[in-house]
Amino acid sequence: AQTVTQSQPEMSVQEAETVTLSCTYDTSENNYYLFWYKQPPSRQMILVIRQEAYKQQNATENRFSVNFQKAAKSFSLKISDSQLGDTAMYFCAFQNNNAGNMLTFGGGTRLMVKP
Amino acid sequence: DGGITQSPKYLFRKEGQNVTLSCEQNLNHDAMYWYRQDPGQGLRLIYYSQIVNDFQKGDIAEGYSVSREKKESFPLTVTSAQKNPTAFYLCASSLRTTHNEQFFGPGTRLTVL
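Output (structure tokens, whole complex):
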């Protein structure tokens, strides 16, 4: 079974600054996908970014990028030029290619962007 | 617009009563999922269905039941056997193939009085 760990329950960052959220996972699989989801106060889950394990290049989506270290089983999310609207819970999730499309979620990191 | 709807947004139940949460999608997705979220915690999988008339238990299925009679609908029943049902419930759907994003509904907050 896979496990996903987010070791930072809460973080804060000043507007326009950069922040990195950590995620580690444990798996014996070689083919998998990793996701970061955002849950703002509205509680609507929104996909931020995804990474295929077979790709060495780190995924980037505008101000959001990941640092994927497969050997270390680490998948951190970097938010550049933080905006007030980035205030939310952030969840890291693991998807095993051999187990359908199910996701295993970490416990989340609450991010507060301060003006 | 395509999307996932969940109803009701808030639900109150007396102890010992069964209650059914609705989830409907018009994204033409084959797979649907139910998650439970407790305060300050991540999502845990209750049940999932990859195709009509078929579903499997997730990590915390005890005290819950589902049906999948139509592709668009995946209702969740919280039975009286669920010992601690107060939580936020999220429904999601996706294409069946792997690596596809799961799209989430707005959630239902269930409170047992």
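DSSP finds no helices and twelve strands in chain A.
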